[in-house]
Amino acid sequence: MEGKMSWSVADAVDYKGSPADRTKTGGWIPAMLILVIEICERLSTLGIGVNLVTYLSGTMHLPSAESANVVSDFMGTSFLLCLLGGFLADAYLGRYLTVAIFSAVQAFGTGMLTVVTKLPQLRPPPCGSSSGASKCHRANGFQIGLLYLSLYLIALGTGGLKSSVSGFGTDQFDEKDEKEKSQMAYFFNRFFFFISTGSLFAVTVLVYIQDEVGRSWSYGICCISMLLAVVLFLSGTRRYRFKKRSGSPIVHILQVLVAAFRKRQLKHPANPAFLFEDFPEASRIQHTDKFRFLDKAAIGEEFHGKTSTMNPWRLCSVTRVEEVKMMIQLLPVWATTIMFWTIYAQMMTFSVEQATTMDRSVGSFGIPAGSLNVFFVSAILITLAIYDRVIMPAMKKWKGKQGFTNLQRIGLGLTLSIMAMASAALTEVKRLSVAREAGKAAAPRGAALPISVFTLVPQFFLVGSGEALIYTGQLDFFITRSPKGMKTMSTGLFLTTLSLGFFLSSFIVSIVKSVTGGESGQGWLADNINHGRLDYFYGLLAALSALNLAAFLYCATWIKPENAGDGLEMASAAKNSPAEDKC
C-alpha cells in the first residue's frame, strides 16, 4: 500500500475519483491537449474581434461609433464572463467540466456566426444595389439580433473556458515534485508563446480569408478547429489529474462582508486575540489593523452575551477576514490599469477603420485592414524576447535584480499607451489633411486615400509593446500579492480590467458622440471618419491616460516592495507569501 501511495499525487484524483497515479496521469501530454483548447479559443476570439468592425460598418451598415461599441462590448463581455466561469468551476463544476462545456458553447456560437454571415437573407443588400440608389440600408432588427446572439454565445464560451483552462493545465503538474515543478514553469512559457502564435495566425491568415475569400469560410475554420480541439480535449480524460473543489473565493468574500454588516453594531474586543480563528497555525494570516470594520465578521457573538454559531455568513475566521483585506488592497492598482485596455480597444476598432481608408497595397497585394494587428502581435513577441534575453540578464548583472518589478512594468505599459495615442492623433491629423487635399472628404467610407497604411504602425507597435509589459506585470502583481486561497480570484480580478477597459471605451465613445455630435450627429466620431475629428478623440484618450498614470504612480508609492525576486515566474509566484501594503 505504501509503495502504491508513493506513486500517487497527494492532492489530485483521476477520472474515477481514485488517487492520481503520477505514472499514468498528468505531465506534458494532457497539458498539451488542454493547451490546444486555448490556442483555438484565441484563434476564434481574436480572428473574429480584430476585423469585426469592418463587417459591422461595411456589410451591416452600422455607424462608425456604434460598430466600435459593438466590438468593445463583445470583447468586454468575453472577459467579464471569466468571473462566471471561475465561480462555476470553483463552486460546482470543476475545471474539467467547465472547459468542456464552455468550449462546446463557443464552437456552437462560432458555427452560428458562420451561418449568419453566409446567408444573404441575414444581412442588408449592398449599397446602391436597388433602384440605382447609393443609400446604404442598415441591417434590420432580426439580422442584428441573430448576429448579436451568435457573438454573445461565443463570448459566453470564451469567458467560461478562459477562466479555467490555464489552471487545469497547471493541475497536471505536482508542485511538490521538483521535476514536475520545473515542467510547470515551461508550461506557462509555452502557453503564452502558443497563444501568441495563434493570435498571429488569426490576424494574418484568418483576416485575409475574411476579406478575400469570405467571412463564413474564416468563421467555419474557427468552428471546425474548436470542435476538433474539444474532441482532443475529451480524448485525454483518462490521463488528466483533477483537483478537488475548495469553494468559490467570491462566496468567501461575500460571507465576510455579510457577517461584518450583520454585526456592525458590535464593539471591537480590546485584544485581537479574542477574534475567532479556526485555521491551522501554519496557514494562518496574522491580524492587521487595516479596514477594521471587517474585523467584526470575526467577533464571536458570545463575546457580547449571545450564542455564536459556526454559520460562515455570521462568523468568519481572522484568516478569512485578512484575505478579504488583502484583496481590497489590490483595488487601487486594479482600477488604474483599466485605462490601458481602453486604449487597447482602439486597435480593434477605430484604428482598423482608419486602415480601411488608406492605401494598403504592397505591390499587387492588398493588406486586409484587420491584418494591421500583425504589428501589434509582433510587438508583443519582440518586446517579450528583448525583455527576457536582454533586459533581465543585464539588470541581473548590473543591479542584481530579475528585471523590472511588476509595478514598474505596469507603469511602463501605461506610459507606452499614452505615447501610442499621441502617435495615433498625429497620424490622424496627417490622414485628414491628405483626405482634404485629395478631395476625398465627401467620398463614401472605405475610399482609399493616397497615404500608406504603414503610417499606423507606430500606434499598433506601441500598444503591443505596452501590452507585453502590462499584461505580465498585472498577472505577476495580482498572483504574488493575493492570499494563497484566492489566487484564482485574483486572476479573475486581473481579467476584469480587460473587460472594464472595453466597456469604458464604449462609454467614452458614447459620451463623445453625444457631446460633439450636435444637430448633424457627426462631431468627432462621424459615421464617415473623413468628416470627423478622430485626432481629437485620440488626444482626449492620451490626456485621460496621462491623468490615469499619475493616479497609478500615486497608488504605487504606497505599495511595499516585495522581498523576493520579482520576475514573472508564475509557477513559483503562486506559492510565494504575499507581501503586505503600507496602507
From TrEMBL:
GO terms for molecular function: transmembrane transporter activity. Signal peptide: none annotated. It comes from Musa acuminata subsp. malaccensis (Wild banana). The chain crosses the membrane at residues 28-56, 68-89, 95-116, 191-210, 216-235, 327-345, 365-387, 407-427, 447-471, 492-516, 536-556. Keywords: Membrane, Transmembrane, Transmembrane helix. The keyword Transmembrane applies. Belongs to the major facilitator superfamily. Proton-dependent oligopeptide transporter (POT/PTR) (TC 2.A.17) family. Its main location: membrane. One of its GO terms (biological process) is transmembrane transport. It is found in: Membrane. It is a multi-pass membrane protein. This is (wild Malaysian banana) hypothetical protein. GO terms for cellular component: membrane. It holds the Pfam family PTR2. PROSITE patterns: PTR2_1 (PS01022).
